Amino acid sequence: MKKTLTIILALAMALSLAACGTAGSESTTDSPAPNGSAAPEASYVVGFSNVDDIYSYCAKFRDYLVEECKAQGIEVIVTNAGGDANVMNGQVEDMISQEAKIVSTIACNPDGNTPALESARSAKLPYVAFLNSIKGGDDYDGYIYIGSQNYDAGTMQGKYLAENLPENAKVIYLTGSLSNQENLDRKNGMMDALKDRTDIEFIAEYDVDSKKDRAMSTTEDCLQAFDSFDAIVCQNDDAALGVVEALKAANRLEGVITVGID
């Protein structure tokens, strides 16, 4: 499965960085294995902070990570930031104090979690950013981003809408925080793909924090506020699932295109 392979590759890259030393540091690991790869230590520890276990996609990713690490004899420190960037920064510091050899996150915020990256840099540890990038990462040799290209994901979403929306379609757009670069990239990709469909009208846009319950309640409000609409577009699948539940409950699912990402 691609997700599992991605995790293995990211950890392999980070293990290599840890073995070779980062940001000019000297290697502190054992000698390489015969095949030339770094030999993991008996109690190799990886730290992982999840943005929020409430997101089913991120919770599944956490489970994949733990499963693959255990299969390779790697211990994992797992924490949940609950969507709070400051909490995540503190969790990364705790991982470093617990002598994690690699720290990794699904970041809450690309700006808000820069302090976590700086903590890893100061400790000369590799930092693996899964799914969400970290501002300043490109300036650190020990930084690895592995995840989707969010502009491309938005472009794919927009192309689907361009091909499937009826003429003069009315669309409601449910987003995550657009202060998050990933969400902004998804929006820009979608809008660029729709630039030739000038007949499409976005009648409302709401920040639902990419959460299922908020998307569900917002959709319920929209059903009261608007007589008709042709699509509700979301920036992730959790929000889209909330939309579907609200539409089903109102017997309005038929005739409304619901689109998510992930």
Structure characterization notes:
The protein is α/β, with parallel strands linked by helices and 262 residues long. Helix content is 43%, strand content 17%. It has helices at residues 2-20, 56-71, 85-97, 114-122, 150-164, 181-193, 212-225, 237-249, and strands at 45-50, 75-80, 102-105, 127-130, 143-146, 170-175, 201-207, 231-234, 257-259. The strands form two sheets. The protein has a five-stranded parallel β-sheet with strand order 2-1-3-4-5, with helices on both faces. Helix 6 (181-193) links the parallel strand 6 (170-175) and strand 7. The longest helix has 19 residues, at 2-20. It starts with a helix and ends with a strand.
Notable features of this structure?
262 residues, alpha/beta, five-stranded parallel sheet, four-stranded parallel sheet, elongated, disordered N terminus
